[in-house]
Amino acid sequence: MSESRVRIRQGDRELELEGDAAFVEAQLERLLPFTFGAGSSLTVAPVPAPHLEDHQVPANFAVKKNLSFEAFLELKQPSSDRDRLLVLAYYQEKYADLQAYPIADLAAAWTLAWPELPWDEACWKEAVEGGFLQWQEDGRLTLSFAGDQYVRDGLA
Fold first, then answer.
1. Which has the higher per-residue pLDDT, 143 or 53?
2. Are 17 and 6 within 8 A, CB to CB?
3. How many CB atoms lie within 10 A of CB 96?
4. Is residue 36's pLDDT more than 90?
């Protein structure tokens, strides 16, 4: 099927048609006198519409999440222990592909991220009570929707 597009403008009148070449040609012959007057005629040589390549994403396409934790911390700049914990949890879920984590794993990640800051049990409890972290059925923690939004929106 050959696609065509015609646009004719004369003063304040305009006629635009698009579709199959035979359809455009037939409609142009029919509508041209109504649009521009009884004596109007036009030799039609439809120009095919440009062929647009179909750009599909290959099946093996994968998004590379190459933001380091240090760069993420610089971006978010958490100032409290609770915010540090939420930023750590968010990074693990979004960039390290850990969807949930036992408290011991979270504590170990904390110690790696901030060796100078002691792990405080009250910190994760505060995050759970505040609705930022939630328990999974298997006893692991994950960010809640509110926690995800809180970190994503800049800890505000």
1. 143
2. yes
3. 13
4. no
Q: What is the pLDDT of residue 62?
A: 58
Identify the sign of the CA torsion 15, 19, 22, 23. Answer: negative
Nearest to 86 by CA among 53, 114, 135, 123: 123
The full DSSP string for 69-133 is HHHHHHHH---SHHHHHHHHHHHHHHTS----B-HHHHHHHHHHH-TTS---HHHHHHHHHTTSE
- 3 closest CA partner among 67, 48, 69: 48
Q: How far is CA 93 from CA 46, 72, 147, in A?
A: 55, 13, 12
Indicate the helix (H) or strand (E) that contains 31: helix 21-36
Phi, psi at 4, each rounded to 5°: -135, 155
**Do the Cβ atoms of 54 and 115 come closer than 8 Å?**
no
Tell me the pLDDT of the chain averaged across its residues. Answer: 83
Q: Is the dihedral of CA 102, 107, 108, 112 positive or negative?
A: positive
Helix (H) or strand (E) segment spanning residue 28:
helix 21-36
Look-up: residue for tokens 């590379």? 64
